[in-house]
Amino acid sequence: MLTNRQLLILQVTVDDFIETAQPVGSRQLSKKEEVPFSPATIRNDMADLEEMGYLEKTHTSSGRVPSQKGYRYYVDNMLTPQRISKSEIKQIRSIFEERMVETEQVIRKSAAILSELTNYTSIMLGLDVRKHRVKRFSIVPLTDDSAVAIIVTDSGHVENRVFSIPESFTASDIERMVNLINERLVGVHLHELPAKLEAVTLAVLRQNNGRLNDLLGSLNKALTIEHEDKVYYGGKMQLLNQPEFNDVEKARSIMYWMDHVNQMPGLFHLDQKGIQIRIGTENNHLAMEDCSIITASYDIGEEQIGSIAIIGPTRMDYKRVVSLLDVMSGDLSRELSKILHGPHG
Amino acid sequence: MLTNRQLLILQVTVDDFIETAQPVGSRQLSKKEEVPFSPATIRNDMADLEEMGYLEKTHTSSGRVPSQKGYRYYVDNMLTPQRISKSEIKQIRSIFEERMVETEQVIRKSAAILSELTNYTSIMLGLDVRKHRVKRFSIVPLTDDSAVAIIVTDSGHVENRVFSIPESFTASDIERMVNLINERLVGVHLHELPAKLEAVTLAVLRQNNGRLNDLLGSLNKALTIEHEDKVYYGGKMQLLNQPEFNDVEKARSIMYWMDHVNQMPGLFHLDQKGIQIRIGTENNHLAMEDCSIITASYDIGEEQIGSIAIIGPTRMDYKRVVSLLDVMSGDLSRELSKILHGPHG
DNA sequence: TATTAGCACTCTATATGAGCGAGTGCTAAC
DNA sequence: GTTAGCACTCGCTCATATAGAGTGCTAATA
């Protein structure tokens, strides 16, 4: 559909705008050596590109700016991966040099470095807690009628909840229950725990029947772990450095968005592998309509999938970010697997 | 030093500016019925007040604005407590109606309501974890050479850290150690734990001597709990609604401050009781020079002190905020004590 | 003597218009 | 098919004019 020259002009226009944040005009383009055409020729092609929806004008006599469709086309067809310099790769690898034992630590540091290398805001989604498996369960009584339930998962993560205990239960009842769980429910996914808990305990603790339901109810309620992803940011304020957000209204709505993403359902599609790019309104959120989010998934072992993302203006440096995320997600998969499955596994 | 009329004018000026955010002029003031003087008279007094440093002009022919010294005087001498309406008190009490068992929950909800009632940003400092006491200690092995240490405190809080175990230690070594701690170190403050740990275990686990130091070292490092206060916000973005922050630079530095307060040492003086007001530069931080922070302490039992605070523009409604914080801190002291010491204690 | 009216002055905010520059679209020439 | 040329449009900047709010000072007033 597009002529070669139009392709060239679209690409150079997007590249230039990404770099300068200024609408790009025909004269300016014709000065570049990659574009050996006169301004008039360029104008004609730009007019065509505008008609087809790839470019836009901010006002009648301004230069052109890529439209969302333009970015989409650029991203889908013109993304030549950029080489990441050795020093940058070294910087990424440095995350894993000091032996760290906690995934959270690794994730935090990754977020920081990613943001430093891109000058955009980075987001790391913590692993979905519900996919972890029970390794050890225990209950510690607090007062006469309340206790805290503690679950250690295979990944070393610890979840804890306070719940209330009906009066008729004694310490030894509780102990029996804990033993039961440790015998039978190790290896169960956290999100399955409440259901299984009921099945297992009902069969055995029958004698306390009347009150058992109360206990189970209260415990299940406490143990029901919402799908509340933990979100780590790196360079949260970086976005505000971009000229497109020099406006308090926009700044606020973005900040607000960031503080509340984890409460918004389905903003990240964790189930998709590889690198995804969502541009402007593709993010399905008003606050994000001037932003693009590039997400890369990494996996740990076989099933657990985590995500890292960079959020920047639609005018972000896609080439570079995609390449960086690629390196980073590979390294993360490798290193987190090591941590979780031990140096020998 | 100040004549009665000057006092009146200062007060009315501050009140008016708090309300309107506009510099207040003499003519405007003379229209109010509390001020039965002509503009000329008011001008004279205002000029005096300016000379003494209580008022400022934004430019030569503008109205006056309270200076930091002016606010300070106002706050120290003119703060008549405001009556809190019954419906508002009811709203505050609603926090404690549904029986909540976790202090964190209570604190979160308090933050939200406080911000809603004031239209400013609220900050709740979580209790200083280091002052909690050990209730139960346990260690769960993760891999061959790492394990997670879990401490439940008397308040129901759970701390956990991953640490590494030298190879020569067996499961039963670890078990002995855990038992030892649960026998001897229950009731110890969290911040004293590392020191005491060493004293207790050295005496008993002597046989494993060479490696014990490694284990203790790694465990102590993990258990050393920094003074890192947990900070909960309510209405984090409220501040950006204030006209004085309609500027991305300021907005950013405030957001940044909020995200990093807990890493800045000594910004809250937890040891002081009662209500404190810090105005502008009294906060000792550039980002806060247009803000005031009003802090109220509450206590739980006898020694633990927590803080709630409201952060708003220096032009904030001191009367109202002070009164609200007063009610809130009282209620919090009462209710949190109940939770922590149980319904019968 | 303390207060007030009056007046000249200052500064901001807002609107208006001119001039410049960058850019466009169209047409005619190459 | 490409380019040169030209008229036109729009935004930006700068200067100027004007209105309005407020001040400081002086002289009149109670």
Automatic annotation (TrEMBL), chains A, B:
InterPro entries: GAF-like_dom_sf, HrcA, HrcA_C, WH-like_DNA-bd_sf, WH_DNA-bd_sf, WHTH_transcript_rep_HrcA_IDD. It comes from the Bacteria. The keyword Repeat does not apply. Residues 104-322 form the Heat-inducible transcription repressor HrcA C-terminal domain. The keyword Transmembrane helix does not apply. GO terms for molecular function: DNA binding. Keywords: Repressor, Stress response, Transcription, Transcription regulation. Gene3D superfamilies: 3.30.450.40, Heat-inducible transcription repressor hrca homolog, domain 3 (3.30.390.60), Winged helix-like DNA-binding domain superfamily/Winged helix DNA-binding domain (1.10.10.10). One of its GO terms (biological process) is negative regulation of DNA-templated transcription. Negative regulator of class I heat shock genes (grpE-dnaK-dnaJ and groELS operons). Prevents heat-shock induction of these operons. Belongs to the HrcA family. This is Heat-inducible transcription repressor HrcA. It comes from Psychrobacillus lasiicapitis. The gene is hrcA.
